[in-house]
Amino acid sequence: MNGGKSRIIYDKASGALSIEVKRGRSVDSDISGNVVIDYDRRGEIVRLNLYPFRFDTFRKNQKALRHFAKRAAIPFMAA
Q: Is the pLDDT assigned to residue 79 strictly greater than 60?
């Protein structure tokens, strides 16, 4: 995917969850609701940010997320 390791960073103070897909500098962003997607100069996704992110809400919605992932044929991994 990116030649390196992806990272997930959670900032408890701000409640932001950031998923770094690949290393690189963001030059453009799309914002929709509480989701910000950052792109590099090639238009590839660098980072996905969720504001605010609450783990208790995530746990409550795991069933719906699993259903969506299955329909979209994408892997879903949650502890």
A: no
